[in-house]
Amino acid sequence: MSDSSPVQPDSRRTKGILDFIERVGNALPEPALIFAILAAVVICLSAIGSKLGWQVQPVQPRVVMVDGTSPSGEAIKVPKLKADGRPEVELVKIGEPVKPKSLLTSEGVYWMFSSMLRNFTTLPAMGLIFVAMLGIGLAEKFGFFSALMRGLAVATPRKLLTPVIVLIGANSSVASDAGYIILPPLAAALYMAVGRPPIVGVAAAFAGVSGGFGGGFFPTGGDGVLAGFAQDAARVIDPTYNVNIVHNLFFKSGSAIIIMLAGWFVTDKIVEPRLIRSGLTGAIDGPQVGDMALKSEEKRALSWSLVTMVGILGVFAAMIFIPGAPLHGDGQPTLPDGRVIVHHAVTIAEKDAATTAPAHDVLTRDPFLVAETTVKGRLPEQPAPRWSHAIVPIIFFAFLIPGMVYGRLTGVMKSQKDFIDGIFHGIRSLTPVLAIAFFMGQFVNYFAYTKLDRMLAYSGGSLLVTADLPVPLLIVLFVLMVVLGDFAISGMLSKFGVLAPIFIPMFMMVGKSPELTTAAYRIGDSVVNIITPMNSYLLIILVVLQKYRKEAGLGTLISLMLPYSIVFFVVWTGFLLIWYQLGYSLGPGSPVNYVPSHP
After folding, report:
1. Percent helix, strand and coil across the chain, each rounded to 5?
2. Which comes out higher in pLDDT, residue 556 or 510?
3. Is 282 left (phi over 0), alpha (psi -120 to 50) or beta?
4. Which of 36, 42, 319, 329 could, after both became Cys, cross-link 325 (CB 3.0–4.6 A)?
5. 3-state SS class at 279
6. Is 526 in contact with 255 (CB distance < 8 Å)?
7. Measured between alpha carbons, how far is 409 from 144 in angstroms, rounded to an integer?
């Protein structure tokens, strides 16, 4: 690509569907105002629904049983079969109807005021972003990333950048949500270093990290929570059913390859050509390949910085794998006073009553309360690997200390003031996010508090159950149901906590395993992550995007990522259907079919 400035786009050329989406999206109010408006809509709907008596009855699918005879001649109950051989299913009411909780009552207004600060400060992305950016910002300020990217640019073939970036992104979920913070800016710098549009690097990285979140070669902390939800839902039908943490590992590994290939195609054949053709590549003012040779002192500093990083990661690895070490085994972090923070909206079953805690409520850590607390079957704050709770400190130190070493050896960091300036560098880039995050936090928590999220999930789920469709079509519709849910409920675990009790038993009724349902859920949850406003990390990607194209808005980002979302949905869902037809296990001891243990 030449060093000349990008040609400004001619409005007559922006007639494609993606350009239309971008124009419409950018014509919307600012993201902060969008979430403020959505929060106001939730407030109004909660009051209207409460006044009009809206309610949704939770249901559970159950096989219709009829009188039958065993081989020995004994009278038993057997499933009633349809003409196609499948068991007949009926929906049975469970619990009390879910009703909206008005925010315009005295209690609701008090909750909005009292939770306003917590809704903002406990937004899932905020803590990770700010703490991680302390270390990452320093490493960027002192030139560590620049040297690393320049070195990688020389070593990596230009045409292989995209598959490498997408594959790394698809596996970054092993480090929780850290991939959102680290990979997009690194990919942008790497693409710019080889003369490709940095915006393309951001898109490829975001597609891998977020669109491929459900894939990967390694088990993650989220896999354990999904397994717990799935197992509890499955035991409604089969009390002896077990779901292991690697229940989707084979399918996840294959999915990572599929996502890499699909992301490679979309990036190089759709996204990058469109940006170049429209002159929307953004500023490409970084060094080109011919200017990237590292000086001798830079090579020395980079080598020692990488050695330092390996050493730090080695120390953390020792703390993770050595028995008795601080990060070995499972654990559950608590506040200094012994309370635990609930990250997803939960129903708390107490001795004499049932109450609802919205996302991020702080609960007393009482042994009886923890034992009796459920999220339609399971508390998401169950003990998880200790290292998964230490991801942010690991990122912080893994970049802070190598960045300091690089800055010291190159002479960039000479004093305490230089060190503090490096720390501040990363935080300064996040200031545009604060207003957006504030209103997003209110909207997400209002939606959970009012119970409108669960009402929407139960209504849609019941409709799909009563449709009585062929299994392949049911899988596709379930994926679409999850896709739509991504625009209503934030968080992979919170959505699954609502949907699993409905769909896992329903799939088991037609002979399909909980592991298959979970695999389909991963697809629906992942493919829309890159375009749903409910993804709080969308804001961070927008900040990175605006670094290279200042006028970029939410519409720009959505139009950029929409091709990935569509292609990922088609290819990944097709991959699951082929996997299902072949009958391969989804993971160790995890078949696609469910065979009841009873007659």
Report:
1. 60, 10, 30
2. 556
3. left
4. 319
5. coil
6. no
7. 11
Cβ–Cβ < 8 Å for 62, 28:
no
Reported confidence tier of residue 343, pLDDT bands at 50, 70, 90 = very low
Angle, helices 514-527/554-582, rounded to nearest 10 degrees: 160
Query: Could you report the per-residue pLDDT of 235-266, keeping only the tens digit for each?
Result: 766 777 888 878 899 999 999 999 999 999 99
pTM over 0.70? The answer is no
Listed range (13-27, 162-176, 521-535, 549-563) with the worst mean pLDDT:
13-27
pLDDT (mean) for 151-173: 82
Buried b / exposed e along 213-246 (16+ C-beta atoms within 10 A) = bbbbeebbbbbbbbbbbbbbbbbbbbeebebbbb
Sequence letter at residue 255: S
DSSP letter (8 states) at residue 213 = T
Residue 34: other Cβ atoms inside 10 A:
17
Contact 502, 60 (CB under 8 A): yes
- In DSSP terms, 590 is beta-bridged to 587
Give the 3-state secondary structure of residue 62.
strand
Residue with tokens 């970054």: 172
Spatial contact of 405 and 309, defined as CB atoms under 8 Å apart: no
